[in-house]
Amino acid sequence: MDYPTALSVEDFTRNLARVRARIDEAAGRAGRGADEVRLLPVSKTVPEDRVRLAIEAGCHRLGENKVQEAVRKHDALLETDVSWSIIGHLQRNKARDVVAIAQEFHALDSLRLAEALDRRLQAAGRGLDVYVQVNTSGEESKYVLHPDDVLDTLARLAAFDSLRVQGLMTLAVFTPDTTRVRSCFRLLRDLRDRARDVDPGLVGPGGLSMGMSGDYEAAIEEGATVVRVGQAIFGERSTPDSHYWPTHEA
Questions:
Q1: Rg of the Cα trace of the chain?
Q2: Are 213 and 230 in contact (CB under 8 A)?
């Protein structure tokens, strides 16, 4: 699918309306309300001048894959009312940056990272909304939690008072095969449901952060509560989506 580059407030307003209409339609097909799905626009690789236009068009929370890029944009856009979500793999030595600028973190993938974040958050006297990232694609990755480890990890996260678990997150397999893509989303939903059966408190509100520009409608039909949409709002990136899949360090 082609994603024209948004270069004006009007472009962003039109793209946002188009994405929200498709969210409404997908939710309706699943017998869900559109208000059950939060759109998280993703501004990774987009320069600050265009991010300003997106903010003016109504994007008040933005997702960034790399914390260094998020810090740069946060500092450049301090006068705006935008807040930041980190959605990509985080090295432990960058925990301080997330604590300094982010309102939520969608890629918690280990207890060691949880410890690093909690230590910084306790020192700062604040909490952080987090989603636990799960490898549902079956592809090898040292950065994403294996499905078999989800329940134990969620139970252990209860020890970290500053981390407010909101649910689970995944990247579906990078393929045009919609059956395989949907299977990733269903696995995440099943894991959430299993955690609820064990202890409803393990996954907080039980959110499912899944779905990107190429598959967010299918994700909504399978239960997504947050969809992370970049190219359909901002325009096509020079870096392919495959660069951000679990086998790559983003």
A1: 17
A2: yes
Contacts for 227 with CB less than 8 Å, ≥ 6 apart: 23, 37, 38, 39, 40, 210, 211, 212, 216, 219, 220
Q: What is the pLDDT of residue 237?
A: 82
- DSSP characters for 197-223? HH-GGGGTT-EEE---TTTHHHHHHTT
Answer yes or no: is pLDDT of 162 > 60: yes
The total of structural domains in the chain comes to 1
Tell me, yes or no, whether 98 lies in a domain: yes
Dihedral-angle region of residue 97 (phi above 0 means left; psi in -120 to 50 means alpha; beta otherwise): alpha
Best CA proximity match to 199, nearest among 163, 156, 229, 142: 156
For residue 171 the two structure tokens come to 């990247």
Q: Give this prediction's pTM.
A: 0.93
Strands 128-133 and 226-229: unpaired
**Which residues constitute the domain of residue 68?**
9-238
- Summarize pLDDT for 71-92 with one digit per residue, the tens: 999 999 999 999 999 999 999 9
Q: Which residues of 91-121 are buried (b: 16+ CB within 10 A; e: fewer)?
A: eeebbbbbbebbebbbbbbbbebbebbbbbb
- In angstroms, rounded to a whole number, what is the distance separating the alpha carbons of residues 214 and 2? 10
Residue 243 lies in a domain: no
Min mean pLDDT across 17-21, 189-193, 242-246 is at: 242-246
Domain assignment present for 174:
yes
Sign of CA dihedral 213, 217, 218, 222: positive
Determine the Cα–Cα distance for residues 31 and 59; give it in Å rounded to an integer. Answer: 27
